[in-house]
C-alpha cells in the first residue's frame, strides 16, 4: 500500500456515518458493542457486535476516501514534515466511474424544495484538469491498479472530485500522494476503510496525538484486512 523502509507507519480510520452523514468514531461503536480497539481493528467486527444493541443506524465508512475535513487536518500536519510542501505528486485511481465521459447519470434530490432530477454526463461533472487527465493515455502503473497522475502543492489534495451540481462538490481523497522530497507517503486504497501513512517517527506521533484523527501506530508488515 505504501513503501517500506520508513521509520514509522500510521493507520487513520475513516469514520463511520450516522444520521445526516454525521461522523462516528470507531471507538464509539466499540464502546457500545463491548469491542476492543487496537491497531488492526476491523470495522465489520465492531459493527456486527453493535447491531444487536444499537438503536441508531450506523453506516460503514467510505472505502478509499478520507473525508475532506479530515484530509485537510492530515495535510496540515504533513506540511510540517516535508521540505517540499509546494511540490507533491497525487495519484487518482482510473477506475472511478465518474471519470468515464461515456457514462451518464441522473441526480434525484429527495428534498421537495430542491432542484428536480438533473441528467448529466461525466464530462460535465469534471474540472478541466481532471477531464484532460482522464482523456490522456498516461498512467502510473502498480500491481492491480493504474492511476492518473497530478502535480501541485499539498493544499490541493482536497480538490480532487466531481460536481453533482454547480454548487455540490463530492471530494475524493488522492489514493496515493507524496512530496517531492519523499519525506512521507499516504495511501487511501480504494477497498479499505482506512488511510495509511508512512513517514518519520515524529510525524507518526503527531498523527496519533491529533484528536480529530482516529489514528494508530502500525507496522510495515501488518495485514490490512480482517483475519
Distance between the termini: 18 Å
Query: Main β-sheet, in a few words?
Result: 8 strands, antiparallel
Give the overall average pLDDT. Answer: 88
| Structural class by secondary-structure content | alpha+beta
Give the topology string: H per helix, E per strand: EEEHHHEEEHHEEEEEEEHE
How many helical elements? 6
Apparent shape: globular
Oligomeric nature of the chains: single chain
Q: What is the percent of helical residues?
A: 10-25%
The Rg value, from CA coordinates, equals: 18 Å
Number of domain modules: 2
Report what the structure shows.
- The protein is α+β, with helices and mostly antiparallel strands.
- It folds into two domains: 15-61, no CATH class; 62-218, no CATH class.
- The chain is built from six helices and 14 strands.
- It has helices at 26-33, 43-51, 68-79, 122-125, 128-135, 201-209, and strands at residues 8-13, 16-17, 23-24, 88-93, 104-107, 118-121, 140-142, 145-152, 161-163, 169-171, 176-179, 185-187, 194-199, 215-218.
- Strand 11 and strand 12 (185-187) form a beta hairpin.
- The two termini are 18 Å apart.
- The model has no long low-confidence stretch (mean pLDDT 88).
